[in-house]
Design a protein that fits this description.
Structural class: alpha+beta
Largest sheet: 7 strands, mixed
Number of strands: 21
Low-confidence stretches: 1-27, 563-604
Number of helices: 19
Length: 604
C-alpha cells in the first residue's frame, strides 16, 4: 500500500512539473492589463464551431463570432447583431437580412457572402452539420448580393430570428478541405465578435484578447482566459485562492462552500436548465420498429402517471438540490422564459400522492406480491426498473437513492445503472437499452430545439444512425403542434401553441420534469468590478446563452508581480485540479482518457 501511494505521489509530482510550462502560458500575469480568468469543469471539445457541441465551446464561440441576431439583453427577444435589419415575405418563406458594415479581425469586411457560405456549408457538408445541422433543415436556398442575405424556406419558420449558427469568414474557411478533421487551431483566429482567440491548449485553457475593431466597441477588459479543471472541488479552491476570478454552473454543495468568503460574490438566480426523467415507453426507430429492452409496464400511460404521483419533487429540491431549484409542475421549458413557460394547475396538476399512485396501479391490475413488489397484470414479470445515471455525477447517485425510496412505497423496485457518458448516450438515445434515465437540457430563449428532440424524426433509423431524441417520442398531435408553431409568426399565438406541446409531454409522460435547477455562480469582487447578466438584473452570467455578460465585464488591472488572491493568479489552482484528478482515479483511467462530463451537463 505504501509503495502504491509512493508511486501515486511521484506520478502527481511528475504531472505537476510536466504541466507547469504549458499552464504558465495561461497564468502569467501581465502588469497593467485587465485579465479575467474563468474556471470551467468542462473542456472545449473543439475550437471548430461546425463541430463543437459542449456548453463551454459554444460559449467561447459566442465571444468570438457574430450571429444574424442575438437575444436582447433585457427581454431575450431577437435583436440585431450582424444583421442590422430584416424583412420577410407575406407567406413567411423568404427572409432578407441586411448585413451591417463590420470587419473581420484580419481587416477584411464582413459581407452577406460570409453568412451565405456558412449556411450553405452546413446544408451540403455532413461533417459541418455536427453542431447545428437541424438549424438549416428547413432552408431551401441561401444567396448573397452585396450586404443582402436572402434565405428561402421550404415552409414558414417562426424561429428564423433565433438561428444559433455563428457566421464564419468565408475567405478563411473555404480553404478547409475536411471540416471533420479541422481543429481550427491557427492563432490568432479570424473572428468578428468581441474577442479573438489567441491560444488553446487542449484540456488546459483557452486565451482570448479583446477585439479592438468589434463593431459595438472594444470590450472593457484586455484578455479573457478559460481555465479547465478536472473536478469542481479544485475549481472552488482556485476561486477562493484567486487563481481564477469567476466560475459558473456550480453544484449546490460547491456553491454553498463559497458562503462566508468576503471576496466572493455568490450568484443564485433562475436558471435555463430543466432536469427530467426519460421514460422508455416503447422505444422505436424512424421506421416504427421496436428497439431496446424497456420494461413493458412503462408502455402503459397509467404506470407513467403513477410514477409521476410517486415522486416527491419538493423533497428532491430540498435534499438533492439543497433547496437551490424549483420543483417542476410543468414541462421542459424553465420558468425564466416567461413567454413560453407552462405549468399545470387544478385537476391537470399531478401532485405527490403515493396513495393515488397505489390506487392507479391496483386498479390497472399491477398487484403486489408477498415481497411488496408489483407484477404485470399477467403475473409473469415484476415491476423492477433500471435507473440509468452517469458514473461521474454524485448528485445523480443521490437522486437515485431518493427515487428508489419513493418507488418502493408504491411497489416498484428501482436499480441504479451507472454508465459512462458515451454508453449512456448510446443506450438512452439509440439502442433503447434502458427503463428510466436522468436527463436534462439547457434551453435557449426560443425553445424550438429542445421541443424538436421529441419529434418522430429524431429517433434513430434502423441502422442506429441519426437521432438526437430525448425520449423516442412519436405522437401525431405533438407533430402537428410543432408544425403549427413553426408557421405562426405572431409571437403570443405561437407561445400558446408551444404551451400546448408542453402540456402534451406532461400528460403523455415520455419524460417527467422533476425540477429546474438554479443558476449557481460565483466571482471575486476584488477582481471583477462590474458585470451585466443576461437578462439584465436577475439573469445568468457564465451559463447564459449570450456574449453579453463577458462583453460588459470589467476588472481591476493586474499589478506588476501580483500572484493569487485575485491579483492575477498562479498555477496553484490548475495543479490542484490535476493532482486531485490523479488521486481520484488512482493512476489508471487518468492516462486512458479524461472523463467526459455527463451528457445532461454538456449539451447546449
Amino acid at each position: 500500500m505504501k509503495k502504491w501511494l509512493a508511486r501515486l505521489s511521484a506520478l502527481s509530482v511528475a504531472l505537476v512539473i510536466a504541466g507547469q510550462g504549458q499552464m504558465a502560458l495561461a497564468q502569467e500575469p501581465a502588469a497593467g492589463k485587465k485579465i479575467v480568468r474563468v474556471g470551467a469543469t468542462q473542456a472545449v471539445d473543439s475550437m471548430n464551431p461546425f463541430l463543437a457541441v459542449r456548453l463551454i465551446s459554444t460559449s467561447v464561440h459566442r465571444w468570438m463570432f457574430g450571429f444574424l441576431t442575438v437575444p436582447d439583453s433585457k427581454t431575450l427577444k431577437p435583436s440585431p447583431d450582424l444583421a442590422e435589419s430584416w424583412t420577410s415575405s407575406p407567406d413567411g418563406l423568404t427572409w432578407t437580412f441586411k448585413i451591417r458594415q463590420a470587419k473581420w479581425s484580419d481587416g477584411k469586411p464582413v459581407t452577406a457572402d460570409d453568412a451565405a457560405w456558412t449556411f450553405n456549408k452546413i446544408m451540403t457538408d455532413e461533417a459541418a452539420k455536427t453542431a447545428n445541422g437541424p438549424a438549416v433543415e428547413n432552408f431551401e436556398s441561401v444567396t448573397a448580393s452585396g450586404q443582402d442575405l436572402t434565405i428561402k424556406l421550404k415552409a414558414p419558420q417562426a424561429s428564423m430570428l433565433e438561428n444559433p449558427i455563428p457566421i464564419m469568414p468565408k475567405h478563411v474557411w473555404e480553404k478547409v478541405t475536411d471540416i471533420a478533421k479541422f481543429e481550427a487551431d491557427t492563432y490568432p483566429a479570424v473572428s468578428n465578435g468581441p474577442y479573438i482567440a489567441t491560444e488553446h491548449k487542449k484540456d488546459q485553457y483557452v486565451k482570448l484578447k479583446a477585439n479592438p475593431d468589434y463593431w459595438r466597441g472594444k470590450p472593457k477588459i484586455d484578455e479573457l482566459q478559460v481555465i479547465f479543471y478536472d473536478n469542481p472541488a479544485a475549481a472552488i479552491v482556485g476561486l477562493q485562492k484567486g487563481d481564477i476570478d469567476l466560475i459558473g454552473r456550480l453544484a449546490p454543495s460547491d456553491f454553498q462552500a463559497l458562503a462566508g468568503d468576503a471576496n466572493i460574490e455568490q450568484w443564485n438566480k433562475q436558471g435555463r436548465r430543466s432536469a427530467y426523467l426519460q421514460i422508455n415507453h416503447g422505444a422505436t426507430t424512424t421506421d416504427d420498429k421496436p428497439v431496446g429492452d424497456g420494461h413493458p409496464a412503462l408502455k402503459d400511460p397509467k404506470v407513467r402517471t403513477a410514477l409521476h404521483h410517486a415522486i416527491d419533487k419538493a423533497k428532491l429540491v430540498a435534499d438533492v438540490q439543497n433547496g437551490l431549484a424549483k420543483p417542476a409542475d410543468g414541462s421542459i421549458v424553465p420558468p425564466m422564459y416567461t413567454d413560453f413557460f407552462w405549468e399545470a394547475t387544478g385537476e391537470e396538476k399531478i401532485s405527490y400522492d403515493p396513495a393515488a399512485a397505489n390506487k392507479i396501479l391496483d386498479e390497472a391490475g399491477y398487484k403486489k406480491g408477498a415481497d411488496g413488489v408489483r407484477t404485470m397484470p399477467d403475473g409473469k414479470k415484476k415491476l423492477e426498473f433500471r435507473f440509468s445515471i452517469h458514473t461521474d455525477t454524485p448528485v445523480e447517485d443521490k437522486l437515485a437513492e431518493y427515487l428508489t425510496g419513493f418507488l418502493k412505497e408504491v411497489g416498484i423496485t428501482l436499480t441504479t445503472n451507472r454508465l459512462d457518458s458515451s454508453k449512456f448516450t448510446e443506450e438512452t438515445g439509440v439502442t433503447g437499452l434502458f427503463d428510466i434515465a436522468i436527463s436534462g437540457w439547457s434551453v435557449n430563449p426560443d425553445p424550438e430545439e429542445v421541443l424538436a428532440t421529441h419529434l418522430c424524426s429524431r429517433r434513430p433509423n434502423a441502422a442506429g444512425e441519426g437521432g438526437g431524441t430525448e425520449s423516442f417520442y412519436c405522437n401525431p398531435e405533438f407533430e402537428k403542434l410543432y408544425q403549427d408553431q413553426l408557421k405562426e409568426l405572431d409571437r403570443p399565438k405561437r407561445a400558446e401553441i408551444i404551451k400546448q406541446m408542453q402540456r402534451k409531454l406532461y400528460t403523455d409522460a415520455p419524460v417527467i420534469a422533476i425540477y429546474y435547477p438554479n443558476d449557481l455562480e460565483g466571482y471575486r469582487k476584488n477582481t471583477i468590478t462590474s458585470v451585466t447578466s443576461i437578462p439584465e438584473g436577475d439573469g445568468i452570467i457564465y451559463g447564459g446563452s449570450s456574449f453579453w455578460p463577458f462583453y460588459t465585464l470589467d476588472a481591476k488591472a493586474t499589478a506588476a508581480g501580483a500572484s493569487g488572491s485575485g491579483a492575477g493568479g498562479s498555477n496553484t489552482g490548475l495543479i490542484i485540479g490535476i493532482v486531485a484528478a490523479v488521486v481520484v482515479v488512482g493512476g489508471a483511467g487518468f492516462f486512458l482518457a479524461r472523463r467526459r462530463k455527463g451528457v445532461a451537463d454538456e449539451r447546449e
